[in-house]
Design a protein that fits this description.
Elements (H helix, E strand, L loop, with lengths): L2 E6 L6 E18 L7 E16 L7 E8 L2 E2 L8 E3 L9 E7 L7 H14 L6 E4 L10 H7 L3 H8 L4 E3 L18 H4 L19 E5 L2 E5 L12 H12 L4 E5 L20 H16 L4 E4 L5 E4 L1 E2 L14 E3 L11 E3 L11 E5 L17 E5 L4 E8 L2 E8 L4 E9 L3 E7 L5 E3 L7 E4 L3 E3 L2 E3 L5 E6 L6 E8 L19 E4 L7 E6 L5 E7 L9 E6 L2 E5 L7 E9 L4 E8 L2
Parallel strand pairs: 7-8, 8-9, 11-12, 12-13, 13-18, 17-22, 23-29
Antiparallel strand pairs: 1-2, 2-3, 2-4, 4-5, 4-6, 7-20, 10-11, 14-18, 14-19, 15-16, 20-21, 21-22, 24-27, 25-26, 25-28, 28-29, 30-31, 31-34, 32-35, 33-34, 35-36
Helix pairs in contact: 5-6
Amino acid sequence: MDRGPYLNLATPNSIVIKWRTTTNCDSKVFYGPIPSSLNNVVHDPLPVKDHEVVITGLQPYTKYYYAIASNNQTLTVPSFSMYFYTMPPYGSNGNYKFWVVGDAGTGSVNQTRVKNGFLKHTNHQHIDGWIWLGDNAYDGGFDSEYQSNVFQHNLYGDVMRRIVVWPAPGNHDYNHNLPFSPSPAYFNIFTLPTLGQAGGLPSGTEAYYSYNYGNIHFISLDSYDQGRGPGDPMAQWLQNDLAANTQPWVIAYWHHPPYTKGSHNSDNSNFLDGELVDMRQNILPILENHGVDLVLCGHSHCYERSKLIDGHYGYSNSLQPSMIKNPTGGNYPQNCPYQKHTIPNKAHKGAVYAVVGCSGKLSGTSSGWPHPVMHYATNTIFGSMLIEVNKNRLDAKFIDSTGAIVDRFTIVKNAGGKSTYSICPGQTLTLTPSWAESVNWFPAGVNQPSLVVSPPLPTFYYAYDNLGCIKDTFVVNFLPPAQCTTTALNDPEIKGRFYVYPTPIQSRQFFIEYLPEFEIKNLQITNILGKTLPFILRKETENKLMVEFPNGVSNGIYNVIILFSDGKKSSSKVIVQN
């Protein structure tokens, strides 16, 4: 084996595994839930040197271990370091982590140090995706340079076998389009979604594409070799892709930054930096009109990170105060995070722009350094970026080669506000803040992610962060007594065998978890008059069920009655408040 293995084009149910051998041979991948049980196999008998195997029929957001073989010879030994994860279901919330590198493929000790610093900072935790910002292999993006500057084990080869790479091309990946240059190796090395396989709109080209990861929509563009005009195919596809997007987070990336005063100057409209101006004038208005949250670029060999801005499409001297949506650093928890309220309208609420072109190279600066949109900038620190998205909260950290945090910012969406609930006297209710964090609760006087309450009287509760940046108000009222009467069960009941959540529910779905040592023989849902309601039941795990009312139900209290296999019956209430 001469290269790999490495991972491309994951979806919730499939993944692409690639590698290279020195001679033509068949392709075989073994995979399974643990290294000692790789009982599934995909085999392609066609003899090739560049191997590409697509594994399908996988479960969403599941860890699989794998090993590869050819000609009945094992090429990798099964181990706990050889694994991949499938994507979570599109639209699902989770705590997702992504690694961002730019201008990295130099083959230098600095490239290795940046990698090691990132792995140290994350304590080798699972990373959901690896974003490359272009100039991935210096100097000409040739296959031999990818081999020496990227795939070597001490560079990226050791981690490419377990993290899916989602790249963008840079000018060096095209060898600057010099005459007589070979076709870019980039398009042979990577397999990328051209047909919308990963959730985005089909682009028909690997030069630019999109994909969904949980509740995030990612867009990778080609700022060098593709037309950058508003009427060109890339811009037209981008417009349509964003119009079709339903995910709440939008992160876009490409090589040439719209704002920089590093080794390149975004105020230059000549042949040296014309791509920067084109992307700012023609692509940014499309992105900002569709609520982009974060834009990542490389090209300048430095780190630059903007404030929360919108609508700045001219040269740096045309920046107006109204274009800065938040003038602070957003470096929570030292200061308040950037807050965006995108309901009902997500357009032009502000985005952060970051240049992370220092994962393998550092260079000088241009006149006017730093660019006036920037909150932080440095051209003396090698590093990469960690992005974490947890529900409606995004945290980004610039990590140096020692693993230290140099810069950070947080964006929180649609957080803070007032919620009103109605419960029966003596009933418990779980309050959860509108953003992902352990918060202070008043009048309970505790700091925790949620609060279970059973007030003696109608009560106000407040949740707020330590800086007082975001506050939730919860009003808990009592339902009228007539709505709190329930039909008595004739059979003796056993309490505590199951529970339902969330309650109250504000949709058609809720969940039931029950003790795994008992089996459910019958499940019934009734209203307070004892009338049985229709529902759809789906088993999520061994002892977890999802219940859905296909036709919806009106507000009120409903009984969930379960008959277990030992003949015992148990019940619980669920409140619906749409």
